[in-house]
Amino acid sequence: MTWIDYEYLVNNHRFLQIIDSFGSDTIKLLDIGCGTGVLPDLLDKKIDSELKLSSDLLDVSDYCLNQCSSVLNKLKHFQANQGFLSYTETIETAIPKSNYYDSIWAIHSFYTVDINKIQDILKHIKTLIKPSGIFLMCKASSDSWYNQLYNFYLKKYEQPNNYRRFITAEDIQENLELLELQYDVIDFDYNHEIDCEDRDLLEAYLKQCILNNYVDVLSLFKEKLLQYLNPKTNQFSFKQKTKLIIVKKH
Fold first, then answer.
1. pLDDT tier at 123, thresholds 50, 70, 90
2. Potential cystine with 192: which of 101, 198, 237, 238 (Cβ 3.0-4.6 Å)?
3. Distance of alpha carbon 186 from alpha carbon 85, whole angstroms
4. Which range has the worst mean pLDDT, 37-41, 83-87, 152-156?
């Protein structure tokens, strides 16, 4: 996901209120799909209290675990603890704890998780959180640019038997409802804009969106991109819609 997605999140008043609600204590955090630590790096500058987030990290990439740990240990309000090299689907085996974390985050992760495993994963996340703890998940909506582009890519490029769409925010909401878990939602609606002449940035962006660095994306998406070209600004404008899903354990 792109930097702007995280910027919108850390600049949201309601999200910052949630962070403020942790007070000035040290809390135990699990970051699922931690990536390279973009969110903590941005959020650290927004925290006014003496809050410390003692962070366990889970990611399928050893590089991401190491990079995120390095970033966190340079920040005022974060400290990297244990790293778990694991798929999200095997979180129950990787982290067999209960009532342990004050908060669990999954911020722009879960996109390629097996949809048939979502309920089991959410059940275990509930087990991992302390009473009165909070689970935060930020995901693109089904009608977001990310999902539209990825679905187009799979139909045009991938073989049909390899087809697996991204998990959407609505998939998570549906499974939370099946588990009878109450949640709140903060909706985000904004654009990713790229100058038409900046072909290198456009190419890198499209490859990031489809999680594939080896596709000739400018050729593959040539006709589709015309739908998003604003001739007045000479920019491509991609509509992004995301949801922050907030689950409080009672």
1. very high
2. 238
3. 30
4. 152-156
The widest CA-to-CA distance across the chain, in whole angstroms, is 55
Which residues, listed in sequence order, are joined to residue 28 by a DSSP beta bridge? 54
* Structural domain includes residue 7: yes
* Structure-token match 């798929």, residue found: 87
Please report the DSSP string for 167-221 in residue order: P-HHHHHHHHHHTT---EEEEEEEEEEEETT-HHHHHHHHHHHHT-SSS-HHHHT
Residue 201 placed within a domain: no
pLDDT-based confidence at 27, cuts 50/70/90? very high
On whether residue 96 sits in a domain, the answer given is yes
Range(s) of the domain holding residue 76? 3-142+163-192+241-248
Residue 242: which of 73, 9, 71, 44 has the closest Cα? 9
Give the number of domains in the chain. Answer: 1
Supply the CATH number for residue 30's domain: 3.40.50.150
* Out of 90-99, 144-153, 157-166, 197-206, least confident range: 157-166
Look at residue 95 and tell me if it is in a domain: yes
- What integer pLDDT is reported at residue 250 of this predicted model? 76
Residue 206, CA distances (Å) to 34, 113, 171, 227 in order:
21, 21, 24, 15
CA angle 187, 204, 158 (to 5 degrees): 85
